[in-house]
Design brief:
One of its GO terms (cellular component) is extracellular matrix. This is A disintegrin and metalloproteinase with thrombospondin motifs 18. The chain is an alpha/beta fold. It has helices at about 130-135, 140-155, 185-200, 255-265, 300-315; strands at about 1-5, 10-15, 25-30, 50-55, 80-85, 95-100, 105-110, 120-125, 165-175, 210-215, 230-235, 245-250, 295-300. Strand 1 (about 1-5) and strand 2 (about 10-15) form a beta hairpin.
Length: about 325
């Protein structure tokens, strides 16, 4: 909930608590402290979410220095990748606007055995006013956490080659548009606004999130302010950057989980299968440009795995 006063804007945040202690050997991405994740397996027992409040000044936000491990992939890609330049910092960015059809699929690829170490991506999730109105205040929290549970499972799929934990540290439900955040059908302008806005949010104990996910109830479109078939927009290799670790995702039902995983994959440095690499577009992998393969398996391609490994080497070296 958003409550206005003459001096501050109050954002209602849900932090998901679990009684399960953190797994040993977990490496935090960026400059983060211990947080707890939503369950990645259906049916796992969790405690009720605890409501807390953070306060953000309406004019300015408290700033924090960029994580030292942040990196930027400046490799040129084909014309399907557009250039997006948030400020600060200055410089060109590669953006992936995703326009793909959805098909129902019934199977998942088997998970690898749990590895002893992993990477936590502490994630801020923001549902905009249109999305809250669409699902209703009574249902929106359950819906979003269900979707993020699915995202967590996709990133734990064995084909990704790494133990990546998507950790939801806070959920913001916007009942009105906050000062400094402008969301419209125009996907790239909305993403620009969101990336700037989220960069100023500081969570509990003065810690920042690693990654920010915007969920919108609007029908977004790349490069124009009208509805079209774009479902998501993300900077390439932006993960863990203060200003670029962010995505916008159009709500399409539970298929939203695949959009989020796909866009977060772009943030991890992944490029579409079949675009400048040897992987095939139509095999139905998560980074396929169509997400409409015929094998019905939710998995990551060998190309996605290679892009991820390259990105993590640069990030963690």
């Amino acid at each position: 909930m958003v409550v206005s006063s003459s001096f501050h804007r109050y954002l209602s945040v849900w932090q998901w608590n679990t009684t399960t202690p953190p797994s040993p050997g977990i490496t935090r991405m960026c400059c983060t402290s211990d947080r707890l994740s939503i369950p990645s397996i259906a049916g796992q027992q969790t405690a009720a979410p605890t409501r807390v409040t953070i306060t953000c000044p309406t004019a300015t936000f408290t700033r924090e220095t960029t994580c030292t491990g942040s990196t930027r992939d400046s490799t040129s890609v084909d014309g399907a990748r557009n250039v997006y330049t948030p400020k600060p910092p200055a410089g060109d960015l590669h953006i992936a606007p995703d326009e793909y059809e959805q098909q129902s699929r019934a199977k998942r690829s088997p998970l690898n055995p749990r590895k002893p170490t992993g990477l936590n991506v502490e994630t801020l999730v923001v549902a905009d006013r249109k999305m809250v109105e669409k699902h209703g205040k009574e249902n929106i929290t359950t819906y979003v956490l269900t979707v993020m549970n699915m995202v967590s499972s996709l990133f734990k799929d064995g084909t990704i080659g790494k133990d990546i934990n998507i950790v939801v540290v806070s959920l913001l439900l916007l009942e009105q548009d906050p000062v400094g955040l402008s969301i419209s059908h125009h996907a790239d302008l909305s993403l620009n606004s969101f990336c700037q806005w989220q960069s100023g949010l500081i969570g509990k104990n003065g810690k920042r999130h690693d990654h920010a996910v915007l969920l919108t109830g609007l029908d977004i479109c790349s490069w124009k302010n009208e509805p079209c078939d774009t479902l998501g927009f993300a900077p390439i290799s932006g993960m863990c950057s203060k200003y670029r670790s962010c995505t916008i995702n159009e709500d399409t039902g539970l298929g939203l989980a695949f959009t989020i995983a796909h866009e977060s994959g772009h943030n991890f440095g992944m490029i579409h299968d079949g675009e400048g690499n040897v992987c095939k577009k139509a095999e139905g992998n998560i980074m396929s440009p169509t997400l409409a393969g015929n094998n019905g398996v939710f998995s990551w391609s060998a190309c996605s795995r290679q892009y991820l490994n390259r990105f993590l080497r640069r990030l963690l070296e």
